[in-house]
Amino acid sequence: MTDIRVDVADDPDDRSSKVFKVFKVFKVAISDETFTFKTFTFEDAEITAAQIAEAVGAHPVTQFRILQQLTSGEVETKRPTELADLREAGVERFFVIRGDRTYDFTIDGLSLEWPLAEITGSHLRVLARATDRQDLVRVTAEGFKAVAGGDVVSLDSAEAEEFRLVERKQTVTIFYREDPFVVERRRWSTEELMALFEVKAGYKLDLIQPDGEFKEMKPNEAIEVREGMEFTSHVPSGQSS
Fold first, then answer.
1. Which one of 20, 134, 208, 233 is most buried, counting C-beta atoms within 10 A?
2. Predicted TM-score (pTM) of this structure
């Protein structure tokens, strides 16, 4: 992104006058693995990846990976001496992350790299530029597996991981004690779900997690329902069913 900077100084030949100098400055956004971007400006239209690292105090540069997200959406590693042209629209976003290698993956066929073996679903969505009407899914041998924002995804496999964006359905099917319920895709409170499932008075509602563990839902807790979620209920400890 290009901006204009105007410097004002006294005219050395006429102290009552001012000298105006106009400069082009180029804005870039730089983040680490937290996706917390900060804006920096450079006067040169072309800068090295090492200059990007220096701007955020990444020393020594050999211990960091500098990545650039291109206009296509692809993310690629930049060598420290490699130039980035800031005059091109949409190339002003960089990541500087400590690491000694990168992990390859694709989203809708676009090639991306990441210097950490794990990444959250929410950060994958940012890289994929997903909209609110799109879901991110992982391509597996068994088919598509939904990736939620809070999921931690491993990229450390023998082959490049593959992800896709799919149009988000407005309803999902969830289960209570194996009975299916087609519900609106949104955040549901504990009380709303208990009313929907007609849970017995005094019972507690449990979310059955992917690992099979039961998580008791607390009063007024709200969760985003996802396809295939399973619930059950139990009588509180110390009470008879």
1. 233
2. 0.68
Distance CA 142, CA 64 (A): 36
Give me the mean pLDDT over the 64-84 stretch.
Answer: 94
Tokens matching residue 126: 């940012």
Could you give the domains of the chain?
Answer: 1-97 (3.10.20.90), 101-168 (3.10.20.90), 171-233 (3.10.20)
Per DSSP, the three-state class of 221 is coil
Measure the CA–CA gap between 236 and 239, rounded to whole angstroms. Answer: 6
Residue with tokens 């917390």: 36
Q: 110-141 burial by CB neighbour count: b if 16+ within 10 A, else e?
A: bebbbbbeebbbebbbebbebeeebbbbbeee
Predicted confidence at residue 146, as pLDDT, reads: 87
> Are the CB atoms for 96 and 32 separated by under 8 Å?
yes
Average pLDDT over residues 29-34: 97
Q: What is the pLDDT of residue 8?
A: 47
**Furthest-apart CA atoms within the chain: distance in Å:** 96
- Give me the pLDDT at residue 142, please: 87
Question: How far, in Å, CA of 193 to CA of 179, rounded?
Answer: 13
From CA 211, how far away is CA 148, in angstroms rounded?
A: 15
Number of other residues whose CB lies within 10 A of the CB of residue 94: 24
